Amino acid sequence: LLGDAGEAAMQIGFQVERLAAAIDIQDAESMQILAARLSLYARKCEIESIASAADRIKRHAGEEEIRWFSLLRDTNSLLDLCRVTQAGLLNHGEKGANEGRREIAL
User: Fold this and answer.
1) Which of 23, 36, 84, 101 is deepest in the core (most CB within 10 A)?
2) What is the pTM of this model?
3) Is the four-CA dihedral 91, 92, 95, 100 of positive or negative sign?
4) Is 27 helix (H, G, I), strand (E, B) or coil?
5) How far is CA 3 from CA 71, 76, 87, in A?
6) Cα(15)–Cα(57) distance, rounded to whole angstroms?
7) For the purposes of burial, counting CB atoms within 10 Å of the CB of 52, is it exposed (0-12), middle (13-18) or buried (19 or more)?
8) Residue-level pLDDT at 6
């Protein structure tokens, strides 16, 4: 059982992987959909930094003349942000689980 933090970390990782795959094949339509989905999920989890980064990617992917370099740069920033956030969420989840085990042991 992962708990809310672990579930959020997994879901964010899954969404970012799908977004990165769409960027690799330069599928602008999928990029817009996936970025919008990631943005909504991040806001639901109150992770505004990821939501804002996903919004930027959605905007870039929706441009008539896509600037792939800018899109790639923003995606790399999003990936870095997600790694840090995932680590923090998982760390927080482990801390909560350890505290729960300690309480049970007492």
Assistant:
1) 23
2) 0.75
3) negative
4) coil
5) 33, 28, 14
6) 13
7) middle
8) 72
